[in-house]
Amino acid sequence: MAMFAAAVAAVAVPVFAAQWRDRERQRAAHRAGVRTWTGHVPLDHAVGLWDLGVVAAFRFGGGLPVRVTPTQAGLFVAVRSSAGGRRYAPVTVQWSDIAGARTEAAGRATDWGRVAMLPLTTVTVELAPPGAGAFVMTTTDAAGLVETVTARLG
User: pTM for the whole thing?
Assistant: First the structure.
């Protein structure tokens, strides 16, 4: 039993530490005025933004890792370089295509298989016209994203 507990701790502690470090780094950047959020987009939503092949399902089963930054034109969404970002050109979701945004707690797992040691938040950016779909992203720190979108739309 002690060996099993040690094996679980050997896997869980580094994952928790990495997620905590990433969340704290993102919060420090927000305090410094940087408005960039990192998270994961489920594959069924990512195929609307990028031409993903079958390999993407195996490679990004827990979601495509992205970085979201508000710009004058809209929300700039780029695949993070650790996921082969050069292969997927960044896209901008135009402000005129955004109807609103909301968040909801996702617990520590998402419907599409993303699991985290820290609590996750699902950010849903509703697209216009109503019923056009949504851009969905999970992140460990969504603080300020919905407020930024709402302020820009209002």
Answer: 0.78
